[in-house]
Design a protein that fits this description.
The chain is an alpha/beta fold. The radius of gyration is 20 Å and the shape is globular. Helix 1 packs across helix 6 and helix 4 crosses helix 5. Helix 2 links the parallel strand 2 and strand 3. The protein contains 7 helices and 6 strands. It has a single domain, classed as Rossmann fold (3-Layer(aba) Sandwich). This is Protein SanA, affects membrane permeability for vancomycin.
Length: 225
């Protein structure tokens, strides 16, 4: 009985060790991949495009405070000349829920020219957005914008699929302490999913190449002359 009990404890210890590795390794990967690639707004390097990830809409169809924070960072990046175009990427699986259009409208109302904002209607998660930015919208390089706790994962994923990306995080939503803390805690498991997505190289919803970003960057070059 004593030997059997010891074997049980060894088996349990092995399971715990595997679980720690399964969760810990992806989090180490994210931290290392994003090291030196996350910046503040004031010291953000110049890149071609800001990518804004969706973060939900209110019942009235407006951006949530979390999404407003992301959009305001993207607007300021554009205004200070750090980027020439903005790709807003969100969920539009139903006619009644349209994140990208709400995001575009918010930016235009804030003064960003319409022809500098491009919408991705199939950015259902961070991995999908990164892959589609590279393969569908042909983004050459980017600053990805999200809440600060999410930015390292987004930077790690985009760079892993071959899109040269740095990140700028928004902290304005910290005033919503409960949801913000929940988002921070959720990252531990979200990093595991991100690692699995990158390893599997799964294809998101794709389709034909869309010229919106190429056209916006061409217009920016024309305006600069």
């Amino acid at each position: 009985m004593e030997l059997r009990g010891r074997r049980g404890w060894w088996a349990l210890g092995g399971v715990v060790a595997l679980a720690v590795i399964a969760v810990g390794a992806p989090n180490v990967w994210v931290a290392r991949s994003a090291s030196g690639q996350v910046h503040g707004l004031a010291d953000a390097p110049d890149r071609s495009v800001a990518i804004v990830l969706g973060a939900g809409l209110t019942e009235e169809g407006r951006p949530t405070p979390f999404l407003e924070g992301r959009l305001d960072i993207a607007r300021r990046l554009y205004e200070q000349g750090s980027v020439d175009a903005i790709l807003v990427s969100g969920d539009n699986r139903t006619h009644s829920y349209d994140e990208p259009t709400a995001m575009r409208d918010h930016l235009v109302e804030a003064g960003v020219p319409t022809d500098r904002v491009v919408m991705d209607f199939a950015g259902r998660d961070t991995y999908d957005t990164c892959v589609r930015a590279k393969r569908i919208f042909e983004v050459p390089d980017a600053i990805i914008v999200s809440q600060s706790y999410h930015v390292p994962r987004a930077v790690a994923v985009c760079n892993a699929i071959g899109l040269d990306t740095v990140g700028v995080g928004d902290d304005s939503a910290r005033r919503f302490a409960g949801p913000y803390r929940a988002g921070e805690q959720r990252e531990y498991l979200a990093n595991v999913k991100a690692a699995l997505d990158v390893l599997s190289r799964r294809d998101p919803v794709l389709g034909d190449v869309e010229p919106g970003i190429t056209d916006a960057l061409a217009q920016a070059r024309t305006d600069d002359k």
